[in-house]
Amino acid sequence: MATAADMDAMRRAITLAARGLGSTSPNPVVGCVILDATGQQAGEGFHQRAGGPHAEIHALRAAGHRARGGTAYVTLEPCNHTGRTGPCAQALLAAGVRRVVYAVGDPNPQATGGADTLRAGGVQVERGLLADEAETGNTAWLTSVRLGRPYVLWKYAATLDGRIAAADATSRWITSPESRADVHRLRAEADAVVVGSGTVRADDPQLGVRGIDGATQPLRVVVDTGATAVRPGARVLDGTAPTLIAVADDADSAHLPEDTVLRLPRAATGPGLDIPALLAALHERGIRSVLLEGGPVLAGSFVAAGAVDTVVGYLAPVLLGAGPAALADAGISTISQALRLDVTGTVRIGPDLRITAVPVPARKGN
Fold it and tell me: Which residues does the UniProt record annotate as the domain CMP/dCMP-type deaminase (predicted)?
């Protein structure tokens, strides 16, 4: 049975793991805490960047000889393979760690098996401590591995009556500066930011991260089916971050830089591109998390494709009564087909309310 010391150490490891958000892809975020044989903290660390030492290595280096006979707390099962770095399971064995407690098993078939290796080496291994909390902190990477596509977080900003712009199309600014700063945090944690052609035409967005020191700029992706929205000089083509313009196979994209063009099939039904094909192409490029920023037509396509994993809505205490809604046609024609959501968080951001929700799995027979 887990002790208070076990819980405290794993919570610390989960907190440490979050420091790697936005900089470790295509690897997971992982935290590690090592207590020595007397139960005192000896070292800690987190995975800081892809290709660099894993969390266990940082913690072992900090602990030094005090790791021998101690306990390692890791948010994800220690890896068992050699890639750009060596297997962490072997490093823990070599350090003489007596006990390893990890929260979540590694679903990556190339890396799993670390727990078995440790047990074979005589280490006491325990799984599942604070697993739900660790899953939440690593949800993007875990989703991408389990589903074979990037995790998608759809973010929108709207009035309290669900409008994203006024009837005359004006929309700056519905939400507060505090909410807009929070969106930059979401961008900094994502591998890619995706918008549609309507957003580019209306706002000419730059889509970079601002106001966060040391942030890794995400890949900027514009879904521009006919290759008509992004024109030379568009802000999304500046040098802030890499950019992909997703266009239809038959679109004329001669005016776009060749290295930015991603050709994809059109959707089998309805307008736009094939969303699963888009996500597969991004996954092949190492993209594990996507921040979908708009607009309503593109969001509707993602929802219709069953490709939204989390919804984050910023609701401003404003009423318009007319204007475009946050979500356009999502293939839902009757209330029984509604995508039900489970609200997982509500937070005041300045004068606004940020609501986080995840789709509820459909029940059989519905």
Answer: 4-126
